[in-house]
């Protein structure tokens, strides 16, 4: 048996692991992306926690309420914004076209992106929880609330990641990606109860927010940080965790279908 015949191709798992490592190294080498993705929600927590330091009633501080929203916003930034802008940039500079011409399974590219989102999301959540506990006496979830926290964050992150990959195709090129995606993300944060009480959002905007995953992710996370008495302040008078799971799950399916239909390996007009 010759040396050539003994040579074997790397396994798909090995290729995915390598690609995930490359994605993480590239992300953490981009100082601007790291600062914006990791530090923006931290800055929001520090500013809002210092300025809006008041009691909502029953001994619940605004910071305790805001923790759910800022974590949801952080997940949105690490997934939807990060994916949409990053992939659009890679499409414009030829990175995607180059990767599509290699023997690498295309699935490895997406696995690498998902791992990147997962690692960055965990980092954001840990940092925000640490700051909330150390500086604002935020009460952490307890018991089975941690299980709710994990599945809400995981489903929300998955839905937003898939949407980010799909939305990346809306930008004409990498230069316009940030201008296309960032306003959408900010509007969703304002109408989804991230920056203030969701009950203070006008009814018609609550209806619009309910069409998108961020509102449901924030609502699910509020259920683990707030006492059950505050569920009465929600539009339906309860946390609606079953509906939270259903809507986020549906958005995962919709996002996957949109990715399949819209994803491109090169910019429009590049052939």
Short account of what is shown:
With 271 residues, the chain is mostly helical.
Question: Features of this protein?
Answer:
mainly alpha, single chain, 2% strand, 11 helices, disordered N terminus
Let me know the number of strands: 2
What share of the residues does DSSP label as strand, in percent? under 5%
The DSSP helix count reads: 11
Structural class: mainly alpha
Instruction: State the major sheet.
Output: 2 strands, antiparallel
Mean pLDDT: 89
Globally, the shape reads: globular
Sketch the topology as an H/E string, one letter per element.
HHHEEHHHHHHHH
Tell me about this structure.
Its main location: membrane. Pfam families: ABC2_membrane. Keywords: Antibiotic resistance, Cell membrane, Membrane, Transmembrane, Transmembrane helix, Transport. The chain is mainly α and 271 residues long. The chain has one domain (29-262). Helices cover 72% and strands 2% of the residues. Strand 1 (55-57) and strand 2 (60-61) form a beta hairpin. The longest helix has 31 residues, at 62-92. The chain is globular.
How do the strands and helices of this protein lay out in sequence?
Layout: H1 3-6, H2 12-29, H3 31-51, E1 55-57, E2 60-61, H4 62-92, H5 95-100, H6 106-136, H7 145-167, H8 174-191, H9 203-209, H10 213-225, H11 241-262
Antiparallel strand pairs: 1-2
Helix pairs in contact: 2-6, 3-4, 3-6, 4-6, 4-7, 4-8, 4-10, 7-10, 7-11, 10-11
């Amino acid at each position: 048996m010759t040396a050539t015949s003994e040579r074997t191709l790397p396994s798909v798992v090995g290729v995915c692991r390598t690609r995930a490592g490359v994605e993480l190294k590239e992300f953490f080498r981009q100082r601007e992306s790291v600062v914006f993705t990791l530090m923006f929600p931290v800055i929001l927590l520090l500013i809002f926690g210092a300025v809006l330091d008041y009691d909502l009633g029953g001994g619940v501080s605004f910071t305790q309420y805001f923790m759910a929203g800022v974590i949801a916003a952080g997940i949105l930034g690490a997934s939807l914004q990060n994916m949409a802008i990053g992939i659009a940039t890679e499409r414009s500079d030829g990175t995607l076209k180059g990767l599509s011409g290699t023997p690498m399974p295309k699935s490895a590219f997406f696995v690498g992106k998902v791992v990147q989102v997962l690692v960055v999301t965990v980092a954001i959540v840990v940092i925000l929880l640490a700051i909330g506990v150390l500086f604002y006496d935020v009460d952490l979830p307890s018991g089975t609330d941690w299980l709710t926290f994990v599945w809400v964050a995981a489903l929300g992150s998955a839905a937003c990641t898939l949407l980010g990959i799909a939305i990346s195709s809306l930008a004409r090129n990498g230069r316009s990606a940030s201008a296309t995606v960032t306003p959408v993300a900010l509007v969703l944060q304002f109408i989804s109860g991230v920056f203030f009480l969701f009950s203070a959002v006008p009814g018609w905007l609550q209806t619009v927010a309910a069409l998108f995953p961020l509102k449901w992710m924030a609502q699910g996370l509020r259920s683990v940080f707030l006492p059950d008495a505050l569920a009465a302040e929600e539009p339906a008078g309860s946390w609606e965790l079953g509906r939270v799971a259903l809507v986020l799950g549906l958005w995962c399916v919709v996002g996957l279908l949109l990715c399949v239909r819209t994803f491109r390996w090169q910019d429009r007009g590049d052939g």
